[in-house]
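Database export, one record per block. Field names are fixed; values are copied verbatim from the stored entry.
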Amino acid sequence: MKLGCIQTLKIVKKVEFGVYLAEQENAPQEERVLLPKKQVPEGSSSGDEIEVFLYKDSKDRLIATTTIPKITLNHIAVLQVKEIGKIGAFLDWGLEKDLFLPYREMSRRVQEEDEILVRLYIDKSQRLCASTKGIYEYLSTNSPYKIGDEVEGRIYEFGHDFGTFVAVDDKYSAMIPKHQDTSYLKLGDVVTAEVTGVKEDGKLDLSLRKKAYLQMDDDAQKVMAILDSYAGVLPFTEKATPEIIFRETGLSKAAFKRAVGRLYKERKITINDGKIRKV
């Protein structure tokens, strides 16, 4: 009897409210599980084998179902958030009883109707629960993608020290470096990105940005907008530290330098006394 798994079991006893299943016909009561009457295939008889999924009902009793859920133990899947409760969220995994996602197992809070990548695990109370943490271990590193390819991926975790973690095609391990602004994204968002690197272990580096020559117009406009917010005078130049530039503009130092260079060339700004001024 494996909680959270799909198993093939035998009908060992028929009762008014369903049938009992077990691995062996002479299994003791504690090694049997109930398959409710409405789930019993028509025409079934003792000794027949049935493929079922084992989980726990609302009273924490082990129970079988012939409905195969969207996720099984120690696997990952994309599930929709149906409801937000006081201690967590409830996900649609294809069964009558929704799957519980505790707040402590969320890498970031979710909202109703979000479609998020989760794994299925057994908690300390021996109940099946979902988690958005630890997805990393279940992702593949043998993707077919190479540098320059455009891919789609789902955000599954925000890592403060490294970057934003992405599951390309919901199954390949990838990351957006921390110098890129992902503050506008939320858990479960699907993004289009460019592969900028393939590590030795197969993990992908991604960029949400366009290629430099395509992105420059957007960056230049962003710098001009920031100048306006600073009353036309930016108290630092492209020589500032990458940390300051990213904190104030959301751009990498290289992108900021390209944008400033373009604006200077077009005579839209001046640079002197350690400041950038709008003309």
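Remark 1: The chain has a mean pLDDT of 89.
Remark 2: The chain has three helices and 18 strands.
End of record.
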